[in-house]
Amino acid sequence: MLSHPDDLKYVKSHEWIRREGADAVIGITAFAADQLGDVTFVELPKVGEKFKNEQKFGVIESVKSVSDLFMPCGGEILAINDKLSSEPELVNLDCYGDGWMLKVKLDNPAEVDAAMSADDYKKFIVD
């Protein structure tokens, strides 16, 4: 069974957000990783780039497909997970831990608050 931790927020494009004060960590959900299959490549933005909520920030490729990645909240990229360039399979192995993608300085923390709870996300993916 796929996990969706209660301490995270989720968006319809299947990214998760973990608040860390004025910053947030972002990745894709276990559901998304499962649907993609074995991840073979992750393209992430550069530190310092700024994105709006729902703006495309990267690309993820798997044995099944190529998908765009979308910002679940607006902000400036503080860090990217460099490990994913040589170990993209971390997204499949530990999407909520070692498979994180971005750290962002939030433009508007209310965007995180407006995202779905774990329970709401579970209902969303079942419907």
The portion of residues assigned to helices is 10-25%
Q: Could you tell me the mean pLDDT?
A: 96
Largest sheet: 6 strands, antiparallel
Structural class: alpha+beta
DSSP helical segment count: 5
Give the topology string: H per helix, E per strand. Answer: EEEHEEEEEHHEHH
How many strand units? 9
| % residues in beta strands | 25-35%
Contiguous low-pLDDT stretches (5 residues minimum) are none
Widest β-sheet, arrangement of strands: 1-2-3-9-8-5
Principal-axes shape call: globular
What is Rg?
13 Å
- Cα(first) to Cα(last) distance is 17 Å
Could you outline the blueprint of secondary structure elements for this entry?
Elements: E1 9-10, E2 15-20, E3 23-28, H1 30-36, E4 39-43, E5 50-51, E6 56-62, E7 66-70, E8 75-80, H2 83-86, H3 90-93, E9 102-106, H4 109-114, H5 118-126
Antiparallel strand pairs: 1-2, 2-3, 3-9, 4-6, 5-8, 6-7, 8-9
